[in-house]
Amino acid sequence: MSEQKEEELSDHQNKKPRITELQDEEASVSNPQSQQEDTEHEDVVEADNLLVQQDVIKLVVTISNGKSIIEQQEKLNLITAGQMVPLVRKMNSKQIKATFDMPLCVELAVQFNEGKTQTELELLNVVEIIAKCASEQKNQKSKQNFADIFTESGLQSAIGQCIHNQIPEPKLDDEENDDNNMWMLDDDVLQLARIYCYMTYISNLDNPLCFFCGLIICRNVNFNVYFLQEQCKQLLKSISISNKRTAEREIIEYTKKLTEILTLIKFISEEIQQRHTLFHHCDLDSDLGPLFHINCPPDLNCPHSIVFPLSIDGEPLHLLTLEIYTQFFEFLNRQNLFQVDDNKVVDHLAPVIITFASNTSFWRKYSMKKNLSLNQQYLISSQTTLQQFLVYLNLVHNLFVYCDRYASYVTSNSDLISVLVALTTFNQKEQKQDLDIGEIIAAKIREQAIEIISEICQSCEEPFQKKILVDMKFAQSLTYAAGIGGGSEEENNSVILSALRCFDEIIDEMNGEVKYEFVHSKVYSDAVEMIEQEGGFEEFDSVKSGRNL
Q1: Most buried in the list 150, 271, 401, 452, measured by CB within 10 Å?
Q2: Closest C-alpha among 218, 223, 349 to residue 292
Q3: Residues 431-440: pLDDT tens digits?
Q4: What's the total number of domains in the chain?
Q5: Is residue 487 part of a domain?
């Protein structure tokens, strides 16, 4: 009985799901519209999802295509900028002024954002050519026109912003060390600094960024000079052919970078305020000092000499260095200048002046060459150019004028003094035609020679004064100063005034007054006698400041 009940109960439970299914089927059959709506809803949702997916895919593809277009445009811009550089390099100053006007410089300015893309870096070459051209303008109006264009077009501001973007943010835990300044040695940073300095030079702009530019320039001078020295030392050692070629390539690269930097310094250092703005906090003298010793005269056996290989001409870099020292006359009074004793400085400079002068037709007239004690083989083998001569003479002049301690060391170099005395009557008409010495240059040579000897005479004792004024006939040469002519009235008067100042400083000083009694030295008497034999000061009558002794 109980078993029968259990079976019935089991059958009853098994029938319940079936009943539910039947009820659902009946409900479905009885409500077909509800089933259709559910299906349609699912289709709509699925369609919407598909549209969203397609939109997302399209947007991603659009972005990707846009990036590809930007990349293609960037490549095209880079190629275009690269084509522009050699064309601009071929342009002369007049063409650059006519081409890069305000509208075009505005277009250039908007190309710069952070100064980090390849196109921007390529365009920096164009901007540097323009900025350098602007700094080379002799006409002040032309310079000012460039300055206005750089400022109003936004080009100068754009370059400045690029430099700001390169300056790293200071960190609190940073210590002052060389690693923190490595960013200054980046080639692109250096080029930006050069461009900004050219621009600020013509606009006389002074802002904190000029300070950073000065640091960048000096840092790069120091770095490149050091490694230039090291590579030149390597070549003097026994090294393999491959290492020798590597060293020569490095020397060429360092020389090129230093030439670019020093060319900039030469332009922007013409005015003392510019020098102060850029290099007040820099030890530029110490950084440049080693370059004074490029290819020192061999007979000096200078331990500091930087010997360039024969395949590389180091003289242009050497001359640039000397020109900068001539401009930085405030350097010239420093002790241990050029890293050598004072008596060695003139020994480094004199051979070039003597050699050039002894190899010109001017000297044949005065038969000076046979009287020179300088090594005759050196005179014959040396090929000194007019540019070298002028640069060396200019530096010697400024050394003696701005620092009187050097003049006393010349007394042992009679060759140099003989040359300087003869230069007081230097006449460009008597030179070889291929020298192409203009009248202005000839007048400048005479004037500098007079002023150098004046400083020497004031620094030496009476016996040496007699040797210069009487024996070497310097007093006689001075009376010829006004009669040489060949230049403009202004140039000749400048020479005459230099001669008159020389008389004031030397001859009158010999005619000293002690307790109201005149004391005439023998040198004074001999010098005056020589002057009177040559007609006195008749040649100086054209200058009102001339006077009789």
Answers
A1: 150
A2: 349
A3: 544 455 667 7
A4: 1
A5: no
